[in-house]
Amino acid sequence: MAADKISWHDRARSLDIRTKAFINGNYTEAASGQTFDSINPGTGKLLARVASGDTEDINRAVAAARAAFRKGVWSNLAPNKRQVILKRFADLIRQHGEELALLETLDMGKPISVSLGVDIPAAARCIEWYAEAIDKIYDEVAPTGPGALATITREPMGVVGAIVPWNYPLLMAAWKIGPVLAAGNSFVLKPSEKSPLTAIRIAQLAVEAGIPEGVFNVVPGLGQTAGKALALHMDVDCIAFTGSTATGRNIMQYAGQSNMKRVSLECGGKSPNIVMADCPDLDKAATAAAYAIFDNQGEVCSAGSRLLVQDSVKDQVLEKIRSIGKSLAPGDPLDSNTKLGAIVDDIQLKRVLGYIDVGRKDGANVFLGGRRVREDSGGYFVEPTVFDGVRPGMTIAREEIFGPVLSTLAFKNIDEAIEIANDVIYGLVAAVWTRDITVAHRTAKALRAGTVFINCYDADDITVPFGGFKQSGIGRDKSLHALEKYTELKTTWLDLG
After folding, report:
1. Which residues, including other chains, have CB under 8 Å from residue 180's CB and lie 6 or more apart?
2. Alpha carbon 154 to chain centroid distance?
3. What pLDDT digit, counting tens, does each position of 154-168 carry?
4. Are 372 and 41 in contact (CB under 8 A)?
5. Which of 128, 299, 301, 400 is catalytic?
6. How does pLDDT run across 286-317, given as a tens digit for each residue?
7. Among 374, 218, 226, 390, CA closest to 306
8. Are 237 and 157 in contact (CB under 8 A)?
9. Up-side HSE of residue 207: CA atoms within 13 Å toward CB?
10. From 104, 128, 193, 266, the catalytic residue
């Protein structure tokens, strides 16, 4: 059924929401019996009370994962059999797409059209892609000469823990699930306490698909309890994290304080979007700049939150962005026509509004928006906001806001733009818009970012790696490179003499 023909409010009233941890193939209450509240960002009302796992629950999940790994029920399963099961898992996610999309929107606040049309299909595609890769990865033989045979093989690490964020709950989980399970590991997932519901639901789908008990575990809980316990656990071989840079630093410390587990981090960003006066299509650049910051309510690690525009075309570009921003008034997330949804919770709402206040106080000009809206709904909505007259040293030009707030900075020449672009602690993505191919390549080479877009923004495919330079992270998600994070490289040397 088409999304615009579905009564999502009616579906929501009859939705069966699972709220328990999933450990060793079964749903279970937290050992402490404690719960935390899941709030609907669109209404501010209680959605569900979710099991609040802590150290004891993490211990149980890790023990189940370790036992399954030692038995080899997944790690020693023939690659083609793991492939079939993971593809079935992806298919089940598609079959339950409407349910999962509804859970995502109710839990996180993004428009239902985005959950249904983008997030859920992309999560299924990710898991399916890694399933297809399982029996197409070959090991190596070293060129050691006739006296020896040295093979180089990749083996699963063992137990991988993942802590994922709230902005793309299922998709960010899938970026871990796909390569972790494709490599033969066992898995413990700690979803964000702000949006845990899809992770809890797909745990049952994983078992239905044929993933053995103990291989796939989900423990909802608070970051400072369940998340910390997972990162500190002595029997977790790798911790994969997506979230803020501040929390990423803590994860690194926990890994060092425990068993020196491998750490993979995809952290924050303050991505520069550079528009040159010779841009081949200023309307296209302005449209891309608007959606680069307003999509998903600006709650995107790779959001183009810094717009660097050559001074001679700045006003033209900003007028186009203003026009688009005015057309993106926040609306009911369960309305299929809504393009901009709710901020995830009241804490993040206050953070975003606080940064807007700081921008005003620092002397930047509010070119568009800047207010909370739809307060009568009880939800957490901020209108698209654009600052002009921003200077590189301002707080709103340097810190990640994670909301629909754009900082506009003018520059005179490309060297100045590159200097401004690189002068932050982050290096996730960047973009440059220019007709000059030499300038494009020179700028792409000079920008310290994991991905550089030329005459586009936020282009995406599962086949390309994603991750950042500097304090935007360590390692890469997506593509075959992600498998490197979740495997150990082993050399086996055979003396033929």
Report:
1. 160, 162, 187, 240, 486
2. 26
3. 999 999 999 999 999
4. no
5. 301
6. 999 999 999 999 999 999 999 999 999 999 99
7. 390
8. yes
9. 15
10. 266
